[in-house]
From TrEMBL:
Chief location bin: membrane
Protein name: Cl-channel voltage-gated family protein
Membrane topology recorded in Swiss-Prot or TrEMBL: Multi-pass membrane protein
Gene Ontology molecular function terms on file: chloride channel activity
Superkingdom: Bacteria
Matches recorded under Gene3D superfamilies: Clc chloride channel
Keyword tags: Chloride, Chloride channel, Ion channel, Ion transport, Membrane, Transmembrane, Transmembrane helix, Transport
InterPro entries, alphabetized: Cl-channel_core, ClC, ClC-type_chloride_channel
Location of the protein in the cell: Membrane
Transmembrane segments: 21-47, 72-92, 200-222, 242-263, 275-295, 315-337, 344-365, 371-392, 404-423
């Protein structure tokens, strides 16, 4: 009875995996998305509670960003201590384990089919906490996205799901991470689709929306439904504000492009030892924090001070320019910190400065000052990430004011275009990874093929056989009506039935049937065997590919191995596998067309 239950469970899981290989496996993906969102929400609660616990120990009033209340020597030395701990913790590990945050998630999504690295995920926990409590100019959204994407991806890896569904799960983790951090579920969806997945499809949208909503529900049950920023009043925009908003957006676009270029200084700083670069970032942060501690941490408390009009002009300049410089240099020096939170703070300060300037110059043309603050936040986020739609949706959800959509569109798009044209930037995460080359997910062919697993397109009608077989064996094979014969080049028939050799060939079963029929008609009775390597027919060189792979992986493998077909293998035990099917280049091309 237990054995029958295990066999039934294994069969159900196999069918579940097979359905997920298809492009329209929405019910299955939606189920996994709910699990992904709930898990990410729980992880975000744990991450934020650990930060709050550290704040209770370090900060006089227990507030996570109360660096202003610390003695000057303490807040100046904290960043140096933080980078020292990060250097000691990551220095003995391989360089690939130091890649954290959103850039790492995009790398794994784009080049590793969403398979997340465990060492990087574990490092993200403590590095994110140390960065925030240590007073570095850092955000919590990058760690949230990495932690959510990693945990969600592991659900798929645990179940050995095909890579096309694994990629959707990673997108679900990204959306739930943003949603749980900001309490903005729609912005989380758009961010995942626009920045990480770089596509808008129904198959991607619905699971990602479910995960984002689930993550928001879980965190709201624990932290409440208040957004990341509390607006002091209702914002009422006016058409007279548009010229000043556009002018502000142009300036913020220049700032955003300059931020990305500063980060790319890391290519030149790479000649210095890594630990020296870390100390440089920590000392520079400490030096600025000696006079303006507001630049430390995420800076959400500073945004609240700006919204309530409690920030002076010198503080606004420090937040707009000083925080921009420190965040960029910290990243350029190799410290893996999040950037979404700091960009919002920079934008808020820049917007407040423009609002004050407009009020002094032309008070009759300027409306609500907080309009400029919120528009500045959205404009900086959209310009740095080159994700205008995500920035606009975040703006609407944070303000709960649909009346500002028009003004948000003008501000965000003006800043985004300015950064793109003036500085020739393609977005922070594209520019810092690929330079001027095209992102792989911006290629329509690879994007379409990444949505489908090989299991949905491969020909399952395959029989593995040795090269030389008896006529009786040939007839038994033909009775099963296979389309393809996968020819093993060894003579051990029993082993050939289980798995192929290192360089198998594919032959159409119809060619063997034709050869067998010709031998029968010719009356060749003295030959009891048939050599599949000698009979007339077209034989295809094969290379292996895993059942979890996507069509984009199969397409790349065909080019790399210079073969015309692949045999799809399913690992059943360590060092053992079975053949699940054959996929040809023609089958992939037919699917795409």
């Amino acid at each position: 009875m237990p054995r029958r239950f295990l066999d039934t469970s294994r069969l159900s899981l196999e069918n579940f995996r097979r359905e997920l290989a298809s492009v329209d496996a929405l019910p299955q993906l939606c189920l996994l998305a709910v699990i992904s969102g709930a898990l990410t929400g729980i992880i975000m609660i744990a991450f934020r509670e650990l930060i709050d616990l550290g704040a209770l120990i370090l900060m006089p009033n227990g507030h996570g960003e109360a660096f202003e209340s610390l003695p000057v020597a303490v807040r100046t030395g904290l960043p140096v201590v933080a980078v020292t701990l990060i250097g000691l913790g990551l220095g003995w590990q391989k360089k690939s384990a130091r890649r954290l945050g959103i850039s790492h998630v995009i790398e794994r999504f784009s080049f590793h089919q969403g398979v997340m690295a465990r060492d990087n995920w574990l490092n993200q926990w403590w590095v994110g906490i140390v960065s925030l409590l240590g007073g570095l100019s850092a955000g919590r959204e990058g760690p949230a996205i990495h932690l959510g994407a990693g945990a969600s991806g592991w659900i798929g890896e645990l179940l050995k799901l095909p890579h096309n569904s694994l990629r959707v799960l990673v997108g679900c983790g990204v959306a739930a991470g943003i949603s749980a951090s900001f309490n903005t579920p729609i912005a989380g969806v758009i961010f995942a689709m626009e920045v990480v997945m770089m596509e808008y499809t129904l198959t991607g949208f619905m699971p990602v929306m479910l995960a984002s909503a689930t993550g928001a529900v879980i965190t709201q049950l624990h932290f409440g439904s208040a957004p990341a920023f509390m607006m002091p009043g209702v914002i009422e925009p006016r058409l007279l504000d548009i010229p000043w908003l556009v002018l502000m957006a142009l300036a913020i676009g220049v700032m955003a492009g300059g931020f990305i270029r500063l980060v790319r200084l890391g290519e030149h700083l790479a000649r210095l030892p890594w630990f020296v670069r870390l100390l440089m970032a920590g000392m520079l942060t400490g030096a600025v924090a000696c006079f303006y501690p507001q630049v430390q941490g995420i800076g959400y408390d500073s945004v609240e001070a700006i919204l309530t009009g409690q920030a002076g002009v010198d503080v606004l300049l420090a937040l707009a320019l000083g925080k921009l410089f420190l965040t960029a240099i910290t990243l350029a020096c190799g410290v893996p910190v999040g950037i979404v939170g700091p960009t919002l703070v920079m934008g808020a300060a820049a917007g407040a400065l423009f609002g004050l300037g407009a009020t002094v110059l032309l008070p009759s043309m300027v409306g609500e000052p907080n309009l400029y603050v919120m528009m500045g936040m959205a404009a900086m986020m959209g310009a740095v990430l080159q994700a205008p739609l995500a920035a606009i949706m975040a703006l609407v959800e944070l303000t709960h004011s649909p009346d500002i959509i028009l003004y948000g569109m003008l501000s965000v798009l003006s800043a985004t275009l300015t950064a793109r044209v003036a500085w020739r930037t393609q977005g922070f995460f594209v520019m810092t990874r690929q330079g001027s080359t095209q992102h792989p997910l911006q290629q329509p062919l690879m994007q379409a093929l990444s949505r489908v697993g090989v299991g949905a397109v491969m020909d399952r009608s395959v029989t593995v056989t040795a090269a030389v077989i008896t006529r009786e064996r040939a007839r038994v094979i033909l009775d099963a009506r296979p389309t393809w014969l996968l020819i093993h080049r060894q003579t051990d028939q029993h082993k050939a039935d289980r798995e192929p050799g290192k360089a198998p060939l594919a032959l159409l079963a119809a060619d063997m049937a034709r050869a067998l029929e010709e031998k029968d008609q010719a009356g060749v009775d003295h030959e009891d065997s048939i050599d599949l390597m000698e009979i007339p027919g077209k034989r295809l060189e094969l290379a292996p590919i895993d059942l979890q792979a996507t069509l984009s992986e199969a397409f790349a493998c065909l080019d790399d191995q210079r073969v015309d077909a692949l045999y799809v293998r399913h690992i059943t035990a360590p060092m053992m596998h079975r053949v699940s099917g054959i996929i040809t280049r023609e089958a992939i091309e037919n699917y795409y067309h």
